[in-house]
Amino acid sequence: MQFPSLTALFQHIKTAWLRFPAASLLAIACMIASIVFVERNEGGQAEAWLMRIIMATALGVPLLLSTSIACESYGWSLQKTWALRGLALLALMGYFATLKVAPDYEAPVDGFRFFALALAVHCGVAVSAYLNRKGDAVLSFWKFNKLLLAEWMVAAFYGLVLYVGISLAILGVDQLFSLDLSWRIYLHLFTVIAAGFHPLYFLSQVPKDYALSEDDPSYNAAIRNLVKYILIPLTLLYLLILYAYILKIGIAWDWPKGYVSSLSLGFSLVGILTYLLNYRLVETDDSTFLAWFRRWFFYLLSPVVPVLLLAVWRRLSDYGITEPRYFVATLGVWLFLICLYFIVSKKDDIRFIPLSLAVIAFLSVVGPWSATAVSSRSQFGQLEALLNKSGALVNGKAQPGKGTVNDDERQRLYSIINYLSERDAMKPAQAWFGSELDSVFQKRTLRYDISRLLIEHLKLEATISNQKSGSFSFGRLTSSLPTEGFEKLFKIELSMDAKQEFKADSIQFSLTKDASIVLASGKTRATFDLKPYLRKMLAKYTDEFYYATIEDPADAAVSLKSERFEMLLIPEVIDYEITHLQPRVNNIRGTLLIKPRK
Length: 598
Known about the structure:
Elements: H1 6-19, H2 21-40, H3 45-73, H4 78-97, H5 108-127, H6 137-177, H7 184-204, H8 221-252, H9 259-277, H10 288-301, H11 304-319, H12 323-344, H13 352-363, H14 371-390, E1 393-394, E2 397-398, H15 407-422, H16 447-458, E3 467-473, E4 488-495, E5 500-502, E6 507-511, E7 516-521, E8 524-529, H17 531-541, E9 547-549, E10 558-561, E11 565-579, E12 582-596
Parallel strand pairs: 3-9
Antiparallel strand pairs: 1-2, 3-11, 4-12, 5-6, 6-7, 7-8, 10-11, 11-12
Helix pairs in contact: 1-2, 1-7, 2-3, 2-7, 3-4, 3-5, 5-13, 6-7, 8-9, 9-11, 9-12, 11-12, 12-13, 12-14, 14-15, 15-16
């Protein structure tokens, strides 16, 4: 493998642009939007729009590639080609219009839908040129996709070499000349290579010949050894482990555990990939082991599928449907269909694998049977059943103060309401309550506040346990800020899994597991301990209930100090968790006032 010269790289980009102009343009747009997002990432409205642009353009590259491949393979005219591209772009614009853009919206639905559609369009790239071909279409399909995979890996290798080489050069210059370059420069470099160089180089290498069914499967030694000595033995080892677990279930007569579904699904997908790579290896290798694997793989896989579906069904019956469980269950059904097809059919048409997967992935995110629609109905049913069981809901009407729940049930209620609120699916619950809660169901109510307000209204108390979750809401107490003497003001929204950076001030804030706020500015780092304040608030407001609205102005601010800084925290909402009497802040939203200590 010879690394291409700079001139050759520009030639590859030109080739990609001339052959796949729409896909290349979207790749460049995705790269630019990603660069701007990395530079501006402050959690505002602009960043929300940028993320949606990134999602749409990233989805559009394989979508437009698949349409161009289909048009080329069927010999369509330029007019028909651009007409199909235009329809694909219209579909992409329709998808973009459905994406949320609020800066405080985490968009779990958008994330699930993006990955499902990405799976569908990538399968479309694999099969679009061979939907109506006959004769040696299966062999051509196999070799075309083998070449695509090889070229993708080559592009990834070149990209990795470029990234490491240029990163080391930047690091060397930074250290030698004490430039103190921002860490963002490495993210920008990664973005340019991953979203720009890699897709454009790959597009330039897409095979132009779609009739590739010559007798020689053209396996190189690396792929041959990978399949023969690594992938097939690993697949059989995975199957052996799952068989042992199935035997354990039969002996103990115990339900399979929920996580076995994910393990079974992962092992099955690895096995199918191995089967596809091995599909023509048996023609060039006289090993009976390879022929045996190709002949019996789906027979060996078939006993795993019922265990997978049984494990998923157990989780669904206990906790209802969510998008991840929906997708696992759907893929389990898909695996059943794949096994049935290859066991019963005499053709063994491997085009059925990506084609069926694309159809199922697309159907899982559209219509009333989509993952979100089905999950929302299921979780709403779970919510109604829990409230009926507690006595807080009788004949479809809320009964404040008459229900009782244990701690696990209260936490489950909190989780379900948050889940439904994130999907704008709590509106039907409005009929349970009187007009005094109409404002809670309006869209301007923050999603995490809805669960607190509803549970607080129902007066559902929880028993004491080793783990508690709750929140403090400060409401209108934060309307005026004591800014005198402070130099900087920051609006913050921190969580355990995300940092917040203010580029203009070169300051970054984060939360630690031990309930502390960390301020980082250049090489300066300061830690502010929230535990004393939390313990005071917990002692004062959580005798019986762990979701409290703070009404005392004296508790609406907390002074925090480090060696170099003094900070005043004016919280709006603090979500916390207590495990074995140790408090931890999961989320905090509010205002920070900062000044250096004298």
